[in-house]
Structure formats: structure tokens, C-alpha cells
Design goal:
Blueprint (H helix, E strand, L loop, with lengths): L2 H17 L11 E5 L2 E4 L4 E4 L2 H4 L8 H13 L12 H12 L3 E5 L2 H20 L7 E5 L8 H5 L4 H4 L9 E4 L4 H9 L4 E6 L15 H11 L3 E5 L35 E4 L11 E5 L1 H4 L15 H16 L2 H20 L5 E7 L2 E6 L7 H11 L2 E2 L1 E3 L3 E4 L7 H16 L3
Parallel strand pairs: 3-13, 5-6, 5-7, 7-8, 8-9
Antiparallel strand pairs: 1-2, 2-3, 4-10, 9-10, 11-12, 12-15, 14-15
The protein binds pyridoxal-5'-phosphate.
Length: about 425
């Protein structure tokens, strides 16, 4: 690295450190370009992106079809607010509700906003349809959840870093163990005020915890039994990431891996974000059938940017890419290959003891204490070797490359990962 080049990265990082709020701890690499599965830093070094902006860039960086939809729409009309109709929103809503099999969609911008929307929708349904007394509704959530960063959402987080000194907290949530049906049944059978069960089909931020085989199906059945809405936060797991269009699809074997309207589990409220736009623009959505969604009336909820024509155009293109390029099928196939290769290495490894995940949402568990910085050190070394990943909670490294990856590229990545881990064995 020459002195002049060194300066480019150093300068960009120094600017963020000096003028930006320090609410993140980025891996020291400064990116300036992306294409497909690759990103490049300001010095021109190429990397495999193994984070995909937390599964937002499932369609690959700067996908030409999505960027084209963005630029074409940007020249025509970007924002009207919902004070008026626009010619893209209804078209996007029709496309997306048919794509996922729901009556209606509520358009919003970020994942956290979509979760907030789902909470409000669930509560209003509880009072107006289920008949719970005013302000008594409870929503069941899981320990170690991650649903975003608003004050209400962090109120039911158990991550001290996300929570501490942000109180007072919002009431109305009951926390149970993830992947524990007995606890769910206990809480549902002992409490008539439960309105919803909010759950991640796989806990991503917590460290890619995949629940037991029939967990979601049985949890949904319990929700039906007690007239409680099953709310799936598929912001990270959705849009082909886990080898199905939605992780709620379970293990369906329909050829398109999109469960064609008969998923194993059909959430009453579906929360989408991240890859809904292919990482090009913030777009999120809440989907539900009329019985639930119709409790929302004019003025009850909204957002100035929610449902703007630019977002609508981008999201349709992003979903078309997922379907046309068969990204769910690719994620499923490559996921199996990835875990097989990692498992063969793990047999002889001392530093890595476990790989887990579904499709191309995977993680390895580093064999060191939770508060050691070994995972961080490994990520620095991966970066040096041309692959970008980030530790998540505990000593865990998440691996989530863009779903447009080829098998050849994946094998190159497996070589980099194993070579790097061996340096720590
Ligand atoms: C990322 C994420 C969110 C929050 O999305 P933002 O766009 O960052 O607000 C919510 N739920 C899950 C499961 C996520 O992974």
C-alpha cells in the first residue's frame, strides 16, 4: 500500500470518527464501489461481500435492472406524499400482495418502522376485532430478539447495549424463550389479553439461531387456537435469503421455492424490509389480509415517504430479480454446499466448532470466550484475505453473501474462510 493510497482510507475513517456520531463500530475498510458479489475499497482492492448489508443486497450490488428502475423513476417523479395518489403505488401494491399472497400492503420505509406498524396494527385489531379491553393488549416476543431501534422496540429487547439509559420503556410486551413451544402455550393459555406473537423465523442478529424443525408451524397453530396474530419479522430472513421466498415457507418443495400461495406457515402479519429494495433505497412493508389490515383508517398511521413512487418502482424491480434469477433456489443449493464444506473443515478445526444456518444465512461459532475479540480478529484477517464479514453477538461470525453468487465464487470464498481460520487454529 503506497503512502498516497493509505491516506484515502485513513482520511475517510478520520472524517467519520470526527464528524459522525459514534453509533457503530465498523470494520476498518472504506468501500466506494460494488457490483454483484463484489465490493471495492477506495484503494481499489476487491472483496467478496459476505454481509450484504445485513441481507439487504440479496440481489447483488448495483443490480442493473434495479438501478435502472431507480434512475428511470427518479427522472419522472420521486415523491408526492400520500396527500395525493401516484401512478406507481397501486401497481406496486397489487404486484407485491400477489407475490406474497396477501390482500393488502402498508408501505413504509425502514425495518423498524415496519415493525412499529405491525405492533400498532396488531393492537388496533386486538381492541376492535378480538375485543380486548382498551390498553390491555399484550404482544408476546422472544428473548434475544432483534426488531430494530425505536424506543418501543428496544423496550422489549434484552440487549443492554441497545437498551440501557433509553428508558422509560413501552409496556405491553411479554418475553418468552425462543424456540420454546411450551412457554408459548403457557403464556397464551394464561393470558386472555395476548393479541400477537412477534417472532423472527430465524434469529439473525442474535447469531443465526435456527429454531427446531416444526417450531414456526406449531407456534402458528397455537396462535390460531388462542386467536392471537402470528407476526413474522422477515426483514432479514425474507426475500430468498434462507432458500425460500420467506423463511416462513418452511421446507416446501415447490419448484420455485416460493411456496406458491401455500406456505407451511402463513403469518397473519408479514414484515418485510431490507432486500425488498435490493439495498438500493429504504423500502419496507407490512402485509396482511383485509380482516386485519382494514382496522387501519385514514389518519391512523403514515409516513411522508412511505409509498413514494421511487420506492415502488425499485421494489417491483427488486422482487422481479428474485423471481427471474431464481435466487431462492440458488440460496438453497449454495447453502448446502457451504455448510458441507465448512463441516468437513470443522472436523479438524480447533478454532471453529460449529456452522449453522439455512440457505445463505449462516454463521460460524468461534471456539473462544464470548467476550474475547477473536471473532473480530478473524474478520480483520478475512478482510486482508479479500472477504468482508462482521462478528455478531457473542463470538459468532455471520456469513450472508449476495444470492447472485455462483458455485465457483462460493468455493473461492470457502477457500478464503478456511485458509483464514487455519491461521487461528
Ligand atoms: C434489520 C432488522 C430490522 C430493522 O430494520 P432497519 O431497516 O434497520 O430499521 C428489524 N428486524 C429484523 C429481523 C432485522 O434484521
Amino acid at each position: 500500500m503506497s503512502v498516497a493510497q493509505h491516506t484515502l482510507s485513513q482520511e475517510a475513517m478520520a472524517l467519520e470518527n470526527k464528524y459522525g456520531a459514534q453509533n457503530y463500530h465498523p470494520l476498518p475498510v472504506v468501500l466506494s464501489r460494488g457490483e454483484g458479489v463484489y465490493v471495492w475499497d477506495v484503494e481499489g482492492k476487491q472483496y467478496f461481500d459476505f454481509l450484504s448489508a445485513y441481507s439487504s443486497v440479496n440481489q447483488g450490488h448495483c443490480h442493473p435492472k434495479i438501478v435502472n428502475a431507480l434512475t428511470e423513476q427518479a427522472r419522472k417523479l420521486t415523491l408526492t406524499s400520500r396527500a395525493f395518489y401516484n401512478d406507481k403505488l397501486g401497481w406496486y401494491e397489487k404486484f407485491t400482495t400477489q407475490y406474497f399472497g396477501y390482500d393488502k400492503l402498508l408501505p413504509i420505509n425502514t425495518g423498524a418502522e415496519a415493525v412499529e406498524t405491525a405492533i400498532k396494527l396488531c393492537r388496533k385489531w386486538a381492541y376492535e376485532v378480538k375485543g380486548i379491553d382498551m390498553n390491555d393488549a399484550e404482544i408476546v416476543v422472544c428473548k434475544n430478539n432483534f426488531h430494530g431501534r425505536t424506543t418501543t422496540i428496544i423496550s422489549f429487547s434484552n440487549d443492554p447495549v441497545a437498551r440501557k439509559n433509553f428508558g422509560p420503556y413501552t409496556d405491553g410486551f411479554i418475553k418468552i424463550e425462543y424456540d420454546n413451544l411450551q412457554e408459548l402455550e403457557d403464556v397464551l393459555s394464561n393470558n386472555e389479553n395476548v393479541a400477537g406473537f412477534l417472532v423472527e423465523p430465524i434469529q439473525g442478529e442474535a447469531g443465526v439461531y435456527v429454531p427446531s424443525e416444526d417450531y414456526l408451524k406449531k407456534a402458528k397453530a397455537l396462535c390460531e387456537k388462542y386467536n392471537v396474530l402470528f407476526i413474522a419479522d422477515e426483514v432479514q430472513t425474507g426475500i430468498a435469503r434462507t432458500g425460500r421466498l420467506l423463511a416462513s415457507c418452511g421446507n416446501c418443495d415447490c419448484p420455485t421455492k416460493s411456496c406458491e400461495g401455500t406456505p407451511e406457515v402463513k403469518p397473519d402479519i408479514l414484515i418485510l424490509g431490507k432486500a425488498l429494495s435490493g439495498g438500493v433505497y429504504p423500502v419496507s412493508a407490512v402485509l396482511a389480509n383485509n380482516e386485519v389490515m382494514n382496522v387501519i383508517r385514514p389518519g391512523n398511521h403514515g409516513s411522508t415517504f412511505g409509498g413514494n413512487p421511487l420506492a415502488a418502482a425499485v421494489a417491483v424491480a427488486a422482487l422481479e430479480v428474485v423471481r427471474d434469477e431464481k435466487l431462492a433456489e440458488n440460496a438453497e443449493r449454495l447453502g448446502v454446499i457451504f455448510r458441507d464444506a465448512m463441516n468437513r473443515y470443522i472436523e479438524t478445526s480447533t478454532i471453529c466448532k460449529l456452522v449453522r444456518g439455512k440457505g445463505l444465512l449462516n454463521a460460524i461459532v468461534i471456539n473462544d470466550s464470548e467476550d474475547s475479540d477473536t471473532a473480530w480478529e478473524i474478520c480483520l484477517r478475512l478482510r486482508d484475505n479479500g472477504l468482508l464479514a462482521k462478528p455478531t453477538h457473542g463470538n459468532i461470525i455471520r456469513f450472508a453473501p449476495p444470492l447472485v453468487m455462483t458455485e465457483g465464487q462460493l468455493m473461492e470464498c470457502v477457500d478464503i474462510i478456511i485458509k483464514t481460520l487455519k491461521e487461528f487454529d
